[in-house]
Amino acid sequence: MTDLVVVGTGLFGLTVAERMAEQGRKVLMLDRRDHLGGNAYSETDPDTGIEVHRYGAHLFHTSNERVWEYVNRFTAFTSYVHRVYTTHRGEVFPMPINLGTINQFFRSAHGPDAARALVREQAAELGGKRPENLDEQGVSLIGRPLYEAFIQGYTAKQWQTDPRELPASIISRLPVRYTYDNRYFNDTHEGLPVGGYTAWLERMADHPNIEVRLSTDFFDPSQPVSKSAVVGQVPVVYTGPVDRYFDDAEGALSWRTLDFEREVLPVGDFQGTPVMNYADPEVPYTRILEFRHFHPEREYTSDKTVIVREYSRFAERGDEPYYPVNTAADRDRLKRYRELMADEPSVHFGGRLGTYQYLDMHMAIGSALSMVENKLTA
Length: 378
Ligand code: FAD
Ligand code: UDP
Description:
Keywords: FAD, Flavoprotein, Isomerase. There is one protein chain. The protein is α/β, with parallel strands linked by helices. It has 13 helices and 16 strands. Strands 7-6-12-13-14-11-15 form a 7-stranded mixed β-sheet. Strands 9-2-1-10-16 form a 5-stranded parallel β-sheet. β3 and β4 form a beta hairpin. It binds flavin-adenine dinucleotide (FAD) and uridine-5'-diphosphate.
C-alpha cells in the first residue's frame, strides 16, 4: 500500500518523502533519470577522481535556521565560502560588484562614500524611477558603465532575452557592496557536503518507508504508477515541469537549458579558483568551473584537473529545463496553469519546475517542509 507518490527525487521531493516516511507513511518516489537527487546530483569524475556536480556548480547557503538544522541531520558541511571572479576585456575582476571591482574598473582609490556618490551619478538617467526590469535594475544598482561591463553581456549570453523583458529580481539576488568583502552570498550558513552531494541525497532516501524507482517517467502509461493510473487514487506530489503535467494546454512556458562541456587538462590547477565568469559577449560560454577548488580539504591528484565550460540557450522540447525565463507572457500562462492546478486537489505541485520559480536548494527544502506541515499532514 502506497500512501503518497512523489514525482521527482530532487531536494523538494526528497524532503517531502523523508518527512512523510518519518511519520509512518509509505512513500513511492519516481524519477525519470537513472539517478536520484535531481539537479544537485554529483559524481566522481572517472579521469581525475574529482567530485563534479553534473548539472552545474551547486553551493549550499541559507539563513533559515530550520533548514540548516534539517540538512545537518544528513550531512556535515565544509567551511567552503563561495567567491567568484569575472574576466572582462582580458582583465580579472572580483564579483559580486564591490569596492575592489569599482576601484579596479575606474582605476580609482575611492572610499565607500565616494564610490556610492559615483554610482549614484551614473545611475541618474533613471531619474529616481522604480526599476521595472533587469536593465533598469542593473543601471539603478551600479550605474551604466559597470552594468555594461559586467552584467549586460553576461546576461545576454545567459538569458538570450532582451534585459528589458526580464524581471528585475534576477539580479536583485546579486549583492553590491561598498566594502572589499567579495563573498558571493550573504547568508549566515554556507558550505559543501563533506562526503559529497550524492551521499547526502541518498541518506535522505534511505528509509524503510521509502521506495525509489529510477528511469521511470510519470507520463509513461505503460508503467504502473503513471499519471493516468494514480491521480485521484493516491495523493501525488509532483515536482516536474508544470506545463508538461498539463500537456502544454496553456502553451509551453519558456525555460533556459545549459550545455556543459567537460575537459580534462594535464595541469594541477587551471584557473586558481572554482568559478570564473566571462562577462564579454564575444566569449561564447558564460563561465568555467574548476571542480577541484570546491574541496581544498581533499587530497586530489595534482597532475590533472577537470574543468567544465557552461553554455546557455533556450530549452527546446527534450532539453532539460533548468531556469524559468519568466517573461510577462510566461507569467500570464503561469496564472492559467495555477487555475488548472486548483482543479487537481489530490496533486500538490512543488519545487523549481513544479512552481516555475527560481528556487535555491535551501528554498526548495524550506518550501517542502511547509508543504508537509500545511497541506500533507494538516
Ligand atoms: P530538481 O532537482 O530539478 O528535481 C526534479 C526531479 O524531477 C528531477 O530529478 C527530474 O528528473 C524529475 N522529473 C521531472 N519530470 C519527471 C517525470 N515526468 N517523471 C519522473 N520524474 C520527473 N541551488 C543552490 O542552492 N545553490 C546553487 O549554487 C545552485 N546552483 C544551481 C545551478 C544550476 C545550473 C541549476 C539548474 C540549479 C541550481 N540550484 C542551486 C538550484 C537547485 O538545483 C534546486 O534548488 C534544487 O535542485 C531544487 O530541487 P527540486 O526538487 O525542486 O528540482
Ligand atoms: N550576472 C551577471 N554577471 C555575472 C554574474 C551574474 O550579469 O558575472 C547576472 C545574470 O543575469 C545572472 C544573474 O546575475 O543570471 C544571477 O546570477 P547568479 O550567479 O545567481 O546566476 P546563476 O548561478 O543562478 O545562473
